[in-house]
Specification:
Elements: E1 13-15, E2 21-23, H1 26-29, H2 43-69, H3 73-93
Antiparallel strand pairs: 1-2
């Protein structure tokens, strides 16, 4: 899907000042005072979201092999943070994972 999609999603998240994923509410996405369409992710942003989701699942599937033993403790902790980020994005964009 990442290499062959027909469109992107409405932007349902933002990052806070610490780089954490924050899910947007419908009120934040759909402004009641505006007739403008909601903001969509660019193709590059959508690919980045998909890549983070893919990483999260690979982390679970291959944790014992690739993700645990080939990295220092600091690197492993960073990868665990990325894993949580990918799962958060998956929970936000689950209904948009279609093509």
């Amino acid at each position: 899907m990442k290499s062959n999609f027909k469109g992107t999603s409405i932007r349902w998240h933002r990052e806070d000042r610490f780089g954490n994923i924050v899910e947007l509410t419908s009120d934040e996405v759909y402004s009641k005072d505006s007739l403008e369409a909601p903001v969509c992710l660019t193709e590059e942003e959508w690919k980045e979201v998909l890549e983070e989701i893919i990483f999260a699942f690979k982390f679970v599937l291959y944790e014992d092999e690739e993700f645990t033993y080939n990295y220092s403790q600091d690197q492993y902790e960073q990868r665990k943070k990325r894993h949580k980020r990918g799962l958060k994005l998956f929970s936000i964009y689950l209904m948009n994972l279609w093509d």
